[in-house]
Structure formats: structure tokens, C-alpha cells
Write a structure and sequence with these properties.
Structural class: alpha+beta
GO molecular function, one term: L-ascorbic acid binding
Protein name: 2OG-Fe(II) oxygenase superfamily protein
Distance between the termini: 31 Å
Strand content: 35-45%
Number of helices: 5
CATH architecture: Sandwich
Cofactor: L-ascorbate
Pfam family, one: 2OG-FeII_Oxy_3
Radius of gyration: 16 Å
Keywords: Dioxygenase, Iron, Metal-binding, Oxidoreductase, Vitamin C
């Protein structure tokens, strides 16, 4: 924990203040091999069109579910287990716990999001459809050539716009309003995992 404190204390401070971090791979404990494994899985994951979110917000994207939290926690594919093991093995687990000051972590949902020209994600809160979605881990596998920006509206009324690149990881608090603007050119691919920071048993 002392090593984590010295290496990641600035990131923990920024996350506590802003609720969002955009990190390069070398700013996290994730290895290039684990990232490549996630990328390979994403290329083989079937997707389906989603136009309405869990709370009725409009979207336009392709989604491949690997683990779901509705109507109950269920891992849907063996590759979902592989990704869950990557995210929750040490030192990744300790990293997420340190950044969020949490003692407990549970992955609620894992999915691949694919957006092509015209694709977007409407404004929503992650914890609106499931109050146990405290943290989103967004691993960027391919950035759009134009568009596909992550827009985060913080509690102070500020609007922050990000265009994460391939291999970058975004950590976002579940109580932040956010959206993804329409992709204009290219394809945007992300692997998203929603984490609970408190124990749930149902």
C-alpha cells in the first residue's frame, strides 16, 4: 500500500475532486499482454444494436454483453470471466481500490461498445439504472477519427470533453452525467466494466 500511495496518490486526489480520470496504459498496472488479450476478445465478441438505454435514454450503438446485472448478476461468456480476472487480479484490484478508497470491488456488468458513423450514447448517469454501479472502467480499444468524444458534466456545472485514444483507460464515477457525441468518421470501440464498491448479495 505504501508503494501505491507514493505512485498513485495524485491520481486518487484528482479522482476524488473531478470523478473522472483519463489514463495511459503505463499510468496503470495493466500489462500490454492483458490489454492485447482484451483487444483480441473484443474482436470475437458478437454485438447487437441498442437504441434505448436502461432508463429510456436514446443511444445508437452496437453492444456485446459479457456479464450482466439485470435481472441478476450473470456472466454470459467464458471470455467475460477472463476479462473479470484481468481487472480484479493484483495489482489491478489494489489500484482500483486505492483510487476509489474502497475495500470491496464487484464487477456488475462487462460489455463491448462499438460506434460507427452516426453512433452515439445519450446523456445518462451510470448509477441511475443500477445504484450499485459506482465506477465505470472504460478501456479504449479504438478511437474514432472524428467525433465520439466523451462529454462529462460535473457537479459544479462544468462541461469537460475528452477524446481518449486507443490503449487509454477512463475511470468515471457512477453519479456523473455523461454522454458520447456522434461518431463522424471511423469507429469507436471500448470495453466497459461497471464496478460496485459495496457488497451485494442477491
Amino acid at each position: 500500500m505504501l508503494e501505491l500511495s507514493s505512485q498513485y496518490s495524485d491520481l486518487r486526489y484528482k479522482f476524488a475532486k473531478y470523478g473522472v480520470l483519463v489514463l495511459s496504459l503505463n499510468e496503470t498496472p495493466m500489462t500490454p499482454e492483458d490489454y492485447q488479450c482484451i483487444l483480441n476478445i473484443s474482436c470475437k465478441t458478437p454485438t447487437r444494436s441498442v437504441t434505448v438505454g436502461d432508463r429510456g435514454e436514446t443511444h445508437n450503438l452496437e453492444v456485446g454483453r459479457l456479464k450482466t446485472d439485470t435481472p441478476y448478476l450473470q456472466t454470459l461468456t467464458s471470455t467475460g470471466t477472463v476479462i473479470e480476472n484481468i481487472l480484479l487480479k493484483e495489482p489491478m484490484k489494489a489500484f482500483f481500490q486505492f483510487i476509489t478508497c474502497a475495500k470491496f470491488l464487484e464487477i456488475r456488468r462487462i460489455q463491448l461498445n462499438v460506434m460507427r458513423p452516426g453512433g452515439y450514447i445519450g446523456a445518462h448517469y451510470d448509477n441511475d439504472s443500477d445504484p450499485l454501479r459506482h465506477l465505470a472502467i472504460i478501456i479504449h480499444l479504438q478511437e474514432a477519427d472524428e467525433g465520439g468524444d466523451l462529454v462529462v458534466y460535473d457537479q459544479g456545472g462544468s462541461t469537460n470533453i475528452y477524446h481518449p485514444l486507443s490503449t487509454q483507460m477512463v475511470l468515471s464515477a457512477g453519479d456523473l452525467l455523461h454522454e458520447v457525441t456522434p461518431v463522424v468518421r471511423g469507429e469507436r470501440r471500448t470495453l466497459v466494466a461497471f464496478l460496485s464498491l459495496t457488497s451485494s448479495r442477491h
